[in-house]
């Protein structure tokens, strides 16, 4: 009997934000926060079920932690062709904050030269390709794209969810992996409409492609849409003789503790049931986190926009702001930080970075981590 665990954290962090003064009163102060997490672990038994059908099909079904798709989606996105072709995924302009025009006529700043420069740095190995992609997303789509830096510190997820199509508005869907193997000598077809998830008295159908297409209609979600095409089970899946197809499908998240549920495959008049048991385990965890900031305070109050991304804990994290919170027990770890600064006044940009630093080395400097910057380059 196999057992599979699904863990997720409710973002219930609290506690009091307080300041730690280091040294004399005139020295800068570092912000710390206490995060309390309620960890709910859903235990599924068994982890996978397999059934053979009369038509020669073998079907395996597994309930999955949707966060597993974070790493799978990130890997797929990062190997998606060369950056010379991928640039089209991003808007190459940003609003000029100094323009006096309003509405549709508001001035724009072209980012094409900045993006070409980032591509060249990726090609030379100076910048990681996933960092380049994260900086482009931040510059193109604004603050709505990055992490606040707070949820990162108290999550065990090691990969960004930016490209995971099964996370919508900061909430994960319930995801299942299905393997379809055709051992017959005929073409077989499986319809998404033939699948039902039954929890208690609730029957739930998998979400179809049309649902995601409406949500991911804008260019901001182009990578999620591509991953949906890669991984999501089509409305009708065709399996040639001798082939095996592995896909995923999802339903709206349903909270049910200490209960059984079934996934039913209905084909013609035959019903094949996959029975799972689930039990809820609840734990609480408290962590003290220190704030680290990469902002260049010399230019505070100017119109310059600086976008940051961090490689830390095997993950690439685009930041909505300029700070990240790191658990005290993890502060001995190493990280790298990168930035793209846009100066709309003089129409120029620069790239900043600090590679392979240790958080603990900056605890005595109020958590301020200075980056090393390139020369300014015309936009």
Written account of the structure:
- The protein has 379 residues and is an alpha+beta fold.
- The chain has six helices and 24 strands.
- The strands form six sheets. Strands 1, 2, 3, 12, 13, 16, 17 and 20 form an eight-stranded antiparallel beta sheet that branches. Strands 18, 19, 21, 22, 23 and 24 form a six-stranded antiparallel beta sheet that branches.
- A hairpin with a 2-residue loop joins strand 16 and strand 17.
Features:
379 residues, elongated, 42% strand, 6-stranded antiparallel beta sheet, single chain, 8-stranded antiparallel beta sheet
Counting DSSP H or I runs of 4 or more residues, the number of helices is 6
Calculate the terminal CA-CA distance, rounded to whole Å: 60 Å
Radius of gyration: 24 Å
Topology, number of strands: 24
Spell out the blueprint of helices and strands.
Elements: E1 4-10, E2 18-21, E3 29-45, E4 49-52, E5 57-64, H1 68-78, H2 83-86, E6 93-95, E7 108-110, H3 112-124, H4 129-141, E8 167-168, E9 171-172, E10 174-182, E11 188-191, E12 195-199, E13 202-204, H5 209-215, H6 222-231, E14 236-239, E15 244-251, E16 259-267, E17 270-293, E18 305-312, E19 315-319, E20 323-327, E21 334-343, E22 348-358, E23 372-373, E24 377-378
Antiparallel strand pairs: 1-3, 2-3, 3-17, 4-5, 5-10, 6-7, 8-9, 10-15, 11-14, 12-13, 12-16, 16-17, 17-20, 18-19, 18-21, 21-22, 22-23, 22-24
